[in-house]
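User: I'm putting together notes for a lab meeting next week and I want to include a structural view of one of the chains we've been expressing. I don't have a solved structure, so I'd like a prediction I can at least talk through. The sequence is below, exactly as it appears in our construct file.
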Amino acid sequence: MSKIFFIIGNNTGLCRAEIFSQIKHLSGINTPTDTSIIANKIDTYDYCKILNKLGGTIKIGHILSTVSSNQVLKKLPQHEFLQQLLKNDKRVVFGISSYATKGGLNFKQIKDIGLNIKNSYRAAGQSARWVSSKENPLSSVVVTRNGLLKKGGEIVVIFDDKQAHLGHTLAVQDYQAYSSRDFGRPTRDMKQGMLPPKLAQILINLAQLKTCDTIMDPFCGGGTILQEAWLMGITNLIGSDINPQAIKSTKSNLAWMRKSLNLGLKNLRLINRDVRQLNMSHNSVTAIVTEPYLGPTDLPRRSNELNKIFLDLDKLYLNSFKVFKKILRQDGRVVIVFPRYVTKRKDYRVNIINNILKLGFELASYPNWVGQLPLVYKRPGQGIAREIYVFHKKSS
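Assistant: Thanks for the context. Below is the predicted structure for the 396-residue chain, given as C-alpha cells.
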C-alpha cells in the first residue's frame, strides 16, 4: 500500500490530534520523528486540499520508497522521481530536506547529493538548479519562494532507526495567507488577546464540526476563531465578549475578511455580555471553541500573587462551564485554552478539571501516537504556555 507523510509543527501533540480529528480511517501510522507522521494513503482524499484546512501541518507528500539508512547517499540521486523530472522541457528546480531524531543528512551531504543530481541532469542535457539553504529541512517559505513544487520538486528523507523513507512533497502550508489574516486585519490588540490564526484553525478542527453546525466563542476578542470558522465554511457563528471594544473589533475584522476574500454571508450573531450572564436557548450550540481571558499579560513573580490570579481564573472558567452545559447540545464539544505559567520553581495551572467533569462533561480521548495530554501550544521563549482541553457534554 502506498504511503503518505505529514510534516508537522513543533507543538507535536496538538498537531497530531488535529490530524486525527480531521482525517478519518488513518492506518499504518508511524512517527519516525517528533515532527513527522507516515500513514497508509487513502486514495479518496485530496491531500493538497486537506493541507489548507490543517493549521498544524507544514507539508504533505508521498513516500516513494524505503531504503537502508546507509544507502541514502547512493540511492537518492538515482531515484525514479528525479529521473521523471528529466522529461521537463524547462529548467528543473529541486531541493532536499532531511528529518531525523538523531543524525540524518548534514549540510555537506545534502550539498554533495544536490550537486550530484544537478550534474547528472546537465549530462542528460537538462538545465537544473539545486536550492541550497542554511535551513535544514527547507521551510515552507523557501519551498514556495523558489517555486520547487511548480518547477521541479522537494525531495524529503525521513530517517527511522536503521531505515530511511524517501518521498516528495505534494503541498506546503500557505504562510502568506496566514500572515495576511493575522497582520493584515484592521484591528489587533494585545489586551484582547493575540490568538494566531493557525492555532484558531487547529482548535476549530478539534471540535470536528460540520458546515451546518453552530459554533460559539464566548470570549471572542478580535474575532479570530469566528474568522477562521467562517473561512472553513461553518454556517452559524456566535460570538460574545464582556468588552464592547472587542465586539467592535470583531465586526471590523470580519467585515474586512468578507471584503478581502469575497466571502458570502453567514448567520452571525454578536453579543456584548459577560459569559456568566448569557441568556441563550438551551441545547442551541454545537461547539464552544474559545481562548478565554488568560490573566494579565505581565504576570507577577510572587507565588502568593500568582496563586490569587489562578484562583480567580478557576472561578471564571468553572462558572463559564456551568453556562456551557446549558447552551450546548447533547454530546456538544468545548475546545478551550487554559494558561500554564512556567517558572523555575513550579508550573502554575488551573485546578478545575475534576470539577468540570462533575458538571457532566468528559474529556476527549486520543490514540497513543498523539502523545501526552493535555495538548500544549507554546512558542520558544514564552513564559506562558497554552494547555488545550477538549470536553464532550455527556448525554443525559
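A couple of points you could mention at the meeting. The mean pLDDT is 92. The domain at 3-173 is CATH 3.30.2130.30 (VC0802-like).

User: Perfect, that's what I needed.
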